[in-house]
Model the fold of this input.
Amino acid sequence: MRLPIASGVATAAVASTLYPLFQGLTWWWTGLGALLVITLIGVLASRYTVPGWLVPPVQIAGLWIYLTAVFASGEAWAGLFPTRESVLVLATSVADGFADIQRFAAPVPAAPGIMLLTAGGIGLIGVLVDLLAVRTRRAALAGLPLLTLFIVPAEIVTEPIAWPAFILGAAGYSWLLVADGHERIGHWGRAVLVRRRTAAGVPGTTPLRLSGKRVGVTAIALAILLPALVPTLAPNPLFGFGVGGTGIGGGNTISIPNPIVGLQGQLQLPQNATVLTYTSSDNVPRYLRLWSLDLFTGEQWTMTAPTGMAENRVDNGALPAPPGATAPIQTRAADLEISISDSVNNMQFLPLPYPPRNVEAEGDWRADQDSLMVFSTRDQAGGLNYRVRLEEPMPTRSALERAGPPSAEIADRYLRLPRDLPQEIRDLADGVTAGQRTPYDKAVRLQEWFTTDGDFAYSLQTAGNGNSALVDFLIYSKTGYCEQFAASMAVMARILGIPARVAVGYTSGTNTGGNVWQVGTHDMHAWPELYFEGIGWLAFEPTPSGSLGQGTARQPDYTRPAPETSDTGTQDDTPSATSSPEAGGAAGESAAPRNPRQLDREGTLVPSVTAEEEGTSLGVWFAAGLAVLVVLLIPAAARRIMRHRRLQAAGRPAPRAARGTAVAMAGSVADRDGPVTPAGMVSAVVAELDDALYDYGMERQPSETSRALARRLSTQHGFDPEATAAISRLAVVTERVLFARTPGETGPLAQDLRVLRRALAATVSRGRRIRVALMPPSTLRRIRGLGGRILDGFDRLENLRVRRPERRA
Amino acid sequence: MAVSHDVGQLEDLVTTAHRIRQAIESVIEGKTDVVRLTMTVLLAEGHLLIEDVPGVGKTMLAKALARSIDCPVRRVQFTPDLLPSDITGVSAYNQQTREFEFKPGPVFANIVVGDEINRASPKTQSALLECMEEHQVTVDGTTYALDTPFMVIATQNPIEMEGTYPLPEAQRDRFTARIAMGYPKPAAELEMLDVHGAASPLDKLEPVATTAEIKALIDAVRAVYVSQPIKRYAVDLVTATRQTPDLRLGASPRSTLQLVRAARAHAAMEGRDYVIPDDLQELAVPVLAHRLLPSIEAQGQRRHPEQVVADLLRRVPVPDARPEAGRGGAGSGR
Done:
């Protein structure tokens, strides 16, 4: 009887973690209704011992009737029983639901289709849990369907699930396990051998249940507290499933790099925070690149660890020559003065225009030879002011069209594609660029396809339906944001034999007057860089720009198709992309209201690097180690403080007038600064003595009097006369204060305590002494006691419930 | 009662008690603990039961104590044919006065030595009951008060010996303490041979204290302070004997009284005017054990009441200044 209810409650508890997916509470009530129906059937089936195999079909039938009654009562017979029409209605609703799910990002509105899917899903999970936990008595296995339910919000939503919801879900499952254990033991029957004095012969399941609950409560508490306490995880909210991880929503995993650890601080910046400002000598806006992602794994773009050799330090003069720029091409030189905001944390790559030739920055900044990323493993860019000189290639169309095939080295690195890349994409790339001869023409055509006639829409609410996200984006949904655009264009360029990589950084930002440009967190961006032999790497911009796209994105001149240079920005759904990017209009565009969730998505766009983490996170690890050390030293510190206070108390006997309360047992150490009553003093002495003995592993028996203790210690450990006198004095004063009519003269005892402590310490090994200093056992005992009391408190809380009068057989 | 007065009395007590103990120990060699316990019982106004095999000096101890105090001492040799009137006294017809005249029995003394008390019939044994508890004798409807101090020192052979009637529980309960003499150590026995070889040292024993002095000492003992925690500890100990499954019969409330009284005397002999848990711990076995009946299980495991009491002493926590929580954590041994 208890088990079906427990399984229903557990499912409901876990289902409550779905809350971030929906708007409103309708889903909860409909889902709860489904669960109620299933639980009711389960309870009745248990009550009348229906065969187990029969229950799930009955439950599914019940669920069907329930869904019909709720969602298609108009067509149902008597508003309840399914008819042909009602089935059709339900089917339509389901189709609508799937479509809605495609359309909306979480939290989704309470559309009937979605509600139907939700209630049905929860109901089916409920049937499964009931089947596993109640019918086949595998309560632990029932955790699997529950986990499935639990994973859904964790997978879809970037924000972590709130910890109370987690507690609820975990507690529900724990209760299911406890109920299962209870029934199991209840079937053992009565104990045969019972002591004469025990009242009844009923086997006590209570202690077992209690310990089960204790284990559950402790595990849940640990699961919640530990991540919060471990310092490296501290910046993450609790339960950061997919925190910062952009591998969310089955569909868009393809091109999304993992977060770099060092960027977490930046992610936490307020939404509109300024990341940097720069002035440009020619007042031309430029993209500022942080990372260059050169590896495509088939799932996502990441980068090989950059290598910063000593000779490539930026103070050593010019940076390495831009790779591939061998042909005599006209370049445009410009100087940028960039200042990074103070509030930027953990930025260890400098945002730079490409290609930088000279960087003047304080600190140990080094350039990666191949990608010209400038980074440091020691210094932070936050608050940094630096100058960069760049020589921007101004390739002519003819030069680009003449570009030859890439060198073997470049081709090997930047043309690599995973073997299982779907054929559809290869076909698509070829189809789009059909008729274009040179790589450059193909590249320009690709960008044009993305921005103009490819029918792509810029949206942060992207969803996939389980197929390859790349295929989904390119062929079906055609909806995405800069990540998808940049990544897809890079992949397609590689398919077409153009070396490509994905750059991640910032767009040129907005002009704030004069030639000062301001770049904020909103301007974070990704774009593809394509390689042309002789000219080098050139940025392309497939992402739609303007108010319906990436606000401050702009297309370089060389990427525009030859004849109609001026109207490339115009697209079906991007009415007026800015064609004069330098104009002040850009400021207005980026200031346009934006959905916070979009910003969040945008913020997650950070590349991953594996080897590099060691360098950047050295400080994090150090801090973490330090924090762990601090946490470990807390017991020792607590012990020291406590001893100090007790010694203070023991060293400050009260004046004669304040005495007379000696009879009072265990008087507390009165106020901290005033004189201490003898009772308070003795209580401090006894407590300190107790802890010291426990620390050194000579625990005092509860029946041992202070005199007997003194005798035992001095004979057993061969104390010297001084220590013997000290402990005898302590014993006599203690018993006089506790038991005599008047306590008499009690001198300060702190010195005696110190002598005794030294004598005790001398009797144990060095290892034990170190342990006592670092991890005092007495403090640990106190912590254990505290934990025990907390658990006792839980038990008492539980015992508050109204008890049924016990039935006696 | 002023503190200084107490202290002065206590000093007297310590020296007098020491004198008496020295006197007794000149006769009984190497039995300091036994002698001390004897003195404790005397000062606690109790009665002492000395139980051991024949010939270890039970009677000698009793006589030595009696003789070192200058007071009337009577000795009764209990035999199977001893009658109650042989103890309490009889009313005899005086032909001259033509009246019944009470002839006081041996209980009319300050110290009564009852030798081999378990050889007498239960009827005779119980004649001692009233005297011991109420310090009075009733013969033929007339009640005669006994002198103070009044102390019965009974010796008995272990009950397994032939020709013995076990002492009834009620009577055992009236003895404050039971002690066993034990065989002397070889060295002490050797010395005994030298001393006792020539003449009985008992003959040379001179009284070292008067009745008045003993009365004053008893008063001083009554003034010894027993704090509330100590009283609670005594009650805890006695309660534990009633609750342990090892015992069929626990200790009586009378034993609580006598335990605390003996603890007072014990403290006073150490010159303390307050009782500490150590006093109770030292006296618990001799004061409690002889009143207890082991359960069948304990008998099966050959656990004597002495052992049971010693175990309880190890289990019952002593009162001290430790906070309850700390003691709970340490005591429960989790």
User: Anything to note?
Assistant: Chain B has 15 helices and 13 strands. Chain B touches chain A at residues 3, 225, 227-230, 245, 272-278, 281, 313-327, 329-331, 334 (CB under 8 Å). Chain B has a mean pLDDT of 83.
